[in-house]
Amino acid sequence: MVNAHYICVNCKRQFIESYDQKGYTEELKVECLEMYVNGLGFRAIERVKKVHHTTIINWVKQVGSSLLDIPDRSEIP
């Protein structure tokens, strides 16, 4: 944990801002996404990895939005 100390120029009050690492590691995120792709449900992944199911849903949405749209079947040669 890293702390940054600030002092207000006007009132001389001291402020401390801490930088804790928040969130999950990229490795854990990838593991959860792989489990989802391999057929596990969100709540099953939650029980195994101890990550809330809505967090996993958000990760799936995030990755899904970065994928290209699938063309209509009529456009496929």
Structural notes for this entry:
- By secondary structure, this protein is an alpha+beta fold.
- It has a domain of 45 residues.
- Helices cover 44% and strands 16% of the residues.
- The chain is built from 3 helices and 2 strands.
- A two-stranded antiparallel ribbon has the order 1-2.
- Strand 1 and strand 2 form a beta hairpin.
- Helix 2 packs across helix 3.
- The protein is elongated, with a radius of gyration of 21 Å.
- The mean pLDDT is 85.
Q: How much helical structure, as a percent, in the residues?
A: 40-55%
Q: Categorize the overall geometry.
A: elongated
Total strands: 2
Cα(first) to Cα(last) distance is 56 Å
Task: Name the helix and strand elements from N-terminus to C-terminus, one letter apiece.
Answer: EEHHH
- In the sheet with the most strands, the strands line up as 1-2
- State the secondary-structure class: alpha+beta
Rounded to the nearest angstrom, the radius of gyration is 21 Å
The percentage of residues in β strands lies in: 15-25%
Describe the largest sheet. Answer: 2 strands, antiparallel
The number of helical segments is 3
Write a brief structural summary.
The protein has 77 residues and is an alpha+beta fold. Helix content is 44%, strand content 16%.
